[in-house]
Amino acid sequence: MVALPLHGRCFCGAVAFEALSEPLQVSWCHCKDCRRQTGAPAVVWAGFPADLVRWRGEPKRRQSSPGIIRSFCAECGTPIAYVDARLPGETYIHTGLFEEADRLIPDRHAYVTSKLFWLHLDDSLAKYEDDTRHRAP
Asked: Cβ(39)–Cβ(81) under 8 Å?
């Protein structure tokens, strides 16, 4: 359990947010799209009910693949969040952007079949070959 709200922002501060609920999940993602979007070998997402995330500043959005909209700061380029049409009402935010990032502890790994071979997963977290949450068709 984490103290609420959770606060975060992009690198330059033009986009900031508050999450008013506990995360639905906190997950490592090893997919190629997340790696390409961030330049990192893997990322950690925290998912929240979209109606419980408050934004200050407007992130720029773009469709990265069918049904997936990713957002970023138009000023500094910081990748911020994504929404998936198959997960209606949910928003996933990069955990590293939160002031309280050390309290958002991952509980699973997604897309481990896309993991870089040199990245070793020596934890006991659940490992999924693809999505970690059931998506609507």
From this structure: no
